[in-house]
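Case study 2.
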Amino acid sequence: MPRFRDLLGREVLVFDGAMGTMLQAAGLPPGGCPELWNLERPEVVLEVHRAYVEAGAAVIETNTFGGNRVKLGHYGLGGQVRQINEAAARLAREAAGERALVAGSLGPTGLFVEPLGELTFREAYDCFAEQAEALAAGGVDLLIIETMADLGEIRAAVLAAKERTGLPVIAQMTFTESGRTFTGTDPTTAALVLSSLGADVVGANCSLGPRELVRVVAEMAALGRVPVSVLPNAGLPRLVGDRTVFPMEPEEFASWGPRLVAAGAAIVGGCCGTTPEYIRLLRGAVAGLRPAAPPADPPGRLTAVASRTRSLFFFEENLPVVIGERLNPTGRKKLAADIAAGDFVLVRQEARAQAAAGAHLLDVNVGVPGIDEAEAMRRAVLAVQEAADLPLCVDSSTPAALEAGLEAFIGKALVNSASGERERLERVLPLARRYGAALVVLALDDEGIPPTAEGRLRVAERVLREAEAAGFPRQDLLVDCLCLAVGADQAAARETLAALRLVKERLGLRTVLGLSNISFGMPNRRLLNATFLAMALEAGLDAVILNPLDPALADTLRAARVLLGRDRDAREYVAAMREHEASPPSPPAPRPEQPAGAA
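Prediction:
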């Protein structure tokens, strides 16, 4: 048989259908453990696999959907993970012969990963690593992670499967009729996060029938990053008495195959309620079809970040991206004390306030002297996710703290930052790549900050070469051209602006600046910050780290968007100005770290 990656894109691959449905028909009692039959009734499992191969399935899945230590533990079988999964892989391998490939099936634990539940990222990772290694030892050709509702859990599963086996990985989530997972993740965000983590295929299975999954497939395929798979149920399930019934007949189910392929599916198959007859007809319905070509200019080529429930693409009309700077304890005693005490009350308040003020991302920095920064970063990231549904910028000079934040964040983060310094780049770049994060690179090297724009461009060029050589996506690299205090050197602003233009024109990379550095030590800093922001946006600035609660900066951003043609018909600007006129002057609101009424 050709290898799985070689088959992708050449033809529509047909997977098998339900295992549980078939085992129940063969006598598996209600509440029984399907995976135990790999040991106790191997002849039945083998016969199910053979029936799907005879039906024309090009890939069959192992009987291991609940084969992790948590699920098996419900049956007192938590210590037999390796034995059960290896046996399952061998059975599927025997049935497949040279006629089909074998996919090792990994399903959810039934627990939620922090912050939705108490399962830590590393506990989830270890659980899936154990199962993936056993399936690989049994001889599977690839791994399929399926029926996942929690983006946090599937992140851990994808990393464990890839890192512990090196096998191709399909990552599938299960969606409700709302078009989102039970925990709120939409198809585009799922596809973005999972492909960024290195999944070879992303997709959907279970919960819904083929009719409802056409839209999900289309949204995932539109991202244009990796092939898409879809394994629907035999229609929307109904409860009849004490039985779950799947109403769609095999002929109708198969008729949706070409429509799923037209929507962008490269892999089709069946989930609950489907049998070899469904797969036989599906195979005939898609015979001769080729997967649709990816979009000519897909959003998957753009710089993008995501939270659990939303994605942010650096489309021109979305720029500039505003990164809230206020989750940083430098010079802020109350916030530093909140972080050091492990309370994170003010951290949550700041997160909510910046989100309400219009920030697109939140920068999270916990650099308080004398604390365990890695643990503080982990807890801060969890706290911020509870307070605000925004992508995060994980900000630290300590790689251990960066990794702790990346583990805890459920989405595609931005890492702040690496630089052209050899040691730092070598430590931070692999972290960003592992967790599928975008990366800010400071335009400085081991000799310090180049004084000229050309010097900063050379640093960016070298970093780009090294990043791409390491397999890091070009679109996920952002360059910080560095704001220096204009009070110390009046040429500093001009060189930064020139560097912005050079990086955009010669490298085509996205740019970012920490705005407030420009005015350090000067009077009326707000005026300098707002003026320089407008100049930097015209020079090509794409993202800016600033205080979103500053009304002068907010107004500058609105005005600049109009003048740069990013606010269509000036609607945002006009609406904001009318709101200003309609609102009478009011006393300043209390700062988020200061309770109302406090002195």
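Residues 121-138 form the longest helix (18 residues).
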